[in-house]
Amino acid sequence: MSLDLFNIIVATVIIWGISISTLIKNKFLSLGNLYLFFYSVLFLIGIKLFIEDTIHDFGGQNLFLLLHLVLILYLFCIPLLKLPRKSVPFVCTNKKLVKFLYWFTIIFSVISLYEVYVNITSGGLLLLFTDSSYGEEAYAETRANMDVVRQEGRSLSYLSIIIGQALQLAPFLFIYSIVDPNSKRIEKLLLGVCVLFKLLNAVSIGSRFGIVVPVMQCVFFYYFIAKYVSSRLNKIIISIGIGVGVFMFAALMAISVSRAQGAGRQDDMYLYYEAYASEGVLFYGKYAYDHGENRQGERIFPLVKRALGYNNVADSYAKRLNKFKMMKINEVNFITFVGDFMLDFGFWGGNLILLILIIFYKSALSRLKRIGFAELCVVFMLIVTLNGFSLYVFTDVSGNLFFFILLFLYFITKQKRQNYVQK
To answer: How far apart (Å, rounded) are the C-alpha atoms in residues 309 and 312?
Structure first.
């Protein structure tokens, strides 16, 4: 057995030990436990991937870095390990603001439906399942178009930015509306349609990211709030979710087959899927500390750097590839959300920022006596972060905006509730 393989096995045993021990201690499968088991499975798959993959060079696995990844994942899961409990009821708060957000999301998402409709009716869905090369071609064309826009310095219109944020809010508000007693059926239905069309559009342009991210957001967030849903409604939601999930899984497989052919890996599809799931863990163990040069925060916080007056901020993949030529790894390969912070700020700077985020999440969700809209904003922020088994999701200008919108909603709704209680 090589030292690299031994290091991966040790880290895998430790994360499985943490997952099982926290489950025994909590006596129920909380969302935090679910994420620990999710990453434990990825570590386990990583062992097989390391042994069998002949395309990537995963050699040089550092045990300290692998254990560091386990530690950071555990710290991010701590705020969710004991929530929700029976003693923490859901309380409907900020009714007017939530109602405004519902219709803001619905109206601006509907504006984008024409483009989605064109993509879907142009044959994208049918070609995906009948033309094995369509998924790769559609994805390449979409990414190329976006890179051209950014390289030429053309900014997205304000309307496009607003629509983008509305579509990002859709999964959060749709799941929240399920437990909101003040939301009407039409609002639940329209928010659900917004999420569905968002997924269908991702399918039509061959984007796995556009499928995996919203689906994981909905699944994990619903798992968190399911205890607040009536048994009858829960059965309906699960039934619909299974139907949509089966279709999305088939579409994801079709896209993966097409992308695998483009990468020359069609002969070993299982290994291709394993790489998609677990290469982030192995690349973290190799490159988290020694990755050539730092990206100076230009993937994680480009909007912040622009606001601070920095020029020549590389706010797209193409720009970063051209600017940071000394990096040993870039975002073509996964390195987990933790790894993105290491690549941007270096090991010590990345840890400092992650520690600040951990302290914020823990303080926002500690000693709760009830859960309302404000707390669920923070829970969703944690879900989006922990879903980054591939890369950090709150990146680039759009991701930064979404992060600060959720952060703003947390602070303003928490403050309004406190003022209401004081009165």
So the answer is: 10
